[in-house]
Design goal:
Blueprint: E1 13-17, E2 20-25, E3 28-31, H1 33-38, H2 44-53, H3 55-82, H4 93-103, E4 106-116, E5 124-132, E6 141-143
Antiparallel strand pairs: 1-2, 2-3, 4-5, 5-6
Length: 150
C-alpha cells in the first residue's frame, strides 16, 4: 500500500436547530458529534459553575475560549500551508508556543477542517489529517487542536 497524496475536502453545510448543530452530508442531515455528546452527558457540574460565577461571566469566559481556539486554529492552518510563523500576539503566543514543537513533527498535511460522517449517522469536522515524520506506516494520523489553560 502507498501513502495518500491528498484528501478531497467536502464542504458540508452546517445548520442550527435550536441549540443543536447539524450537517448536511451525502447521508442526509446528521447531528454533530458535539450535539450527540452534549445530549448524552451530565451537565450538572457545568450548570453549577455557571450559577456560581453568574451567567454573564460564564458567557464571557466561553466567548474568550472560543476566540482563542479560533485564532489558534487559524495560526496552525496558515503555518501548515505556508510555513511562516505567525505574528506575535499577547494572548495567542502561549498557545502557539505550546503547539509549535509538535508542528515540526508533521511531514505532510493531507487535509484540514474536513467534514466526516460515519454510517452511524452523525457528523463532524476534523482539524487535520497528516503524516508525522516519525510515522513510517502508510496510515496518516488524525489531529485535533486544543487550547486550554489547564
Amino acid at each position: 500500500m502507498s501513502r495518500i497524496q491528498a484528501l478531497p475536502k467536502y464542504e458540508s453545510v452546517r445548520c442550527m436547530e435550536g441549540n443543536e448543530r447539524f450537517y448536511d452530508t451525502p447521508l442526509g442531515k446528521c447531528p454533530s458529534v458535539t450535539t450527540v455528546l452534549s445530549n448524552s452527558k451530565d451537565n450538572s457540574q457545568l450548570d453549577r459553575w455557571r450559577q456560581r460565577i453568574g451567567q454573564d461571566k460564564a458567557d464571557e469566559i466561553v466567548k474568550a475560549a472560543i476566540w482563542r481556539g479560533e485564532r489558534q486554529h487559524e495560526r496552525i492552518e496558515q503555518f501548515l500551508i505556508d510555513g511562516i510563523e505567525p505574528e506575535p500576539h499577547l494572548i495567542c503566543d502561549m498557545y502557539w508556543k505550546s503547539t509549535r514543537p509538535f508542528l515540526s513533527r508533521i511531514a505532510k498535511p493531507l487535509a484540514m477542517e474536513g467534514a466526516v460522517w460515519p454510517p452511524e449517522g452523525y457528523a463532524g469536522v476534523f482539524d487535520c489529517i497528516a503524516y508525522l515524520k516519525e510515522d513510517d506506516s502508510d496510515h496518516p494520523t488524525l489531529l485535533d487542536w486544543k487550547t486550554a489553560d489547564k
